[in-house]
Amino acid sequence: MTDAHSPLTDLPIALVDVSLTANGVKILDRINLALAAGRPTVLIGPNGSGKTSVLRIAMGLLAPSSGRVTWAGRESGAPSGRGFVFQRPTMLRRTAAGNIRYALKAAGMPRHLLDERVAELLNVVGLAGLGGRPARRMSGGEQQHLALARALARNPTVLFLDEPTASLDPAATKAFEDVVQGIIARGIKVVMSTHDLGEARRLAGEVVMLHQGRVIETSAAADFFAAPQTMEARKFLSGDLLV
Q: What pTM was estimated for this model as a whole?
């Protein structure tokens, strides 16, 4: 993938004693987490455990109520090296190519490079030949691929994915995961939340389990699935409800 410029890396990302409270409710409770370059980090846990909030704070979209976040040692700065794909991305009323072109312009891509880069990104996410299709008429899976292309417009060093396959059928999930594997192979750090333990097994290099706004366990994926160290993790993996 051709880079218009090399972004300032945001890795490692460190959350230090991060808490988040909204309307008197504690959402995150003293989170300590380091996100380093390398294999994907996958956040798992029951609904309401705080996965999305951790992603948004690490991305810089949400400020913690207390604690601090650093990106490669910096505590501020525009997220030039970060991309984010939401669970239900909003498509602009444009073609697929037009959506990507908009993101590239926002990232400062020179006009004379736009068409080449649009075609390249469509190819990277498996949408080659679909650039002229209205984005809002594309299938849910195709829209998630398009959201990936828009996120890649900034040449991120780290890509955040918030349960991106939650509403996709198995075939669309497989196609999306294949694209993500290609992105991982390009050296982009992926930090992803998922409710799907099978997906976590397929993609994760590192697993972070959250429950009630706290980090319960962090370990290499192989170790986590083979021998979880906490009662909560063992219950979650066995399909028991965590309350």
A: 0.92
